[in-house]
Model the fold of this input.
Amino acid sequence: MGLVTGLLLLPLAPVRGTLWVADHLLQEAERQAGDPRAVQARLAALNRALEEGAIDEAAFEEEEERLLARLDSPVRCTGHRGGAS
Done:
């Protein structure tokens, strides 16, 4: 990158930095969403919330179904099939 190009793009540095951070946060969220341990931890927390009366049976069943579907699905949030991305 030439000096002139670098100087012209300098005002965009904060935006580019923000986009870089947002991209990495998205990648980490997708990785965690596809991690069976994270889903199992969320199921355990969901069970505790039901037992403590923090949520009702209908809310529990809806969230449990969504989480179990995530465990059963070979397609992760990244859109790739199978193993880790």
